[in-house]
Inverse folding.
């Protein structure tokens, strides 16, 4: 059962001889007016599109073998996929610097060894959001102790995960 305030739209591409000739959208949950009103409030996009989902897919697939197509790494057990996804997303946000977020240093700094001076500070998404002040190491991520207050709220996320008696089927695009 979808939450009553869920807004969800489908992008429909019409093709002729393999070429996209028209792109339309269709509301699936919520009204077209409500979806348009939400789009007007967000700074990232003015139209319904698949770019954010495709960007997320392109980010996750190389790091999560279970999501790649035609692989022998597929596992049916949802807990293993869920565990892998949490680790992948945490690593993506606190361990891996993103070139597009790098900040130019006021003064170039020496690097280890005899290499050229470093002109850019590596920045992760968590650093850009002000959640942390440094690029984490993998060891630091894996040894991070999750606060009890956070663990106590995990039950609030149950609606995000299908129950164990539901078969999850991945359909390729």
């Amino acid at each position: 059962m979808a939450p009553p305030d869920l807004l969800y739209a489908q992008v429909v591409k019409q093709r002729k001889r393999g070429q996209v000739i028209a792109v339309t959208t269709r509301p699936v949950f919520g009204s077209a007016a409500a979806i348009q009103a939400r789009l007007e409030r967000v700074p990232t996009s003015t139209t319904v599109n698949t770019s954010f989902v495709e960007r997320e897919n392109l980010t996750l697939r190389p790091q999560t073998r279970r999501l790649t197509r035609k692989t022998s790494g597929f596992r049916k057990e949802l807990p293993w996929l869920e565990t892998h996804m949490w680790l992948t997303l945490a690593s993506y946000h606190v361990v891996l610097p993103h070139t597009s977020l790098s900040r130019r240093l006021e003064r170039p700094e020496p690097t280890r060894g005899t290499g050229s001076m470093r002109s850019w500070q590596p920045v992760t998404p968590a650093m850009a959001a002000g959640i942390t002040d440094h690029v984490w190491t993998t060891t630091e991520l894996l040894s991070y102790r999750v606060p009890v207050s956070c663990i106590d709220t995990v039950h609030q996320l149950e609606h995000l995960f299908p129950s164990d008696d539901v078969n999850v089927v991945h359909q390729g695009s």
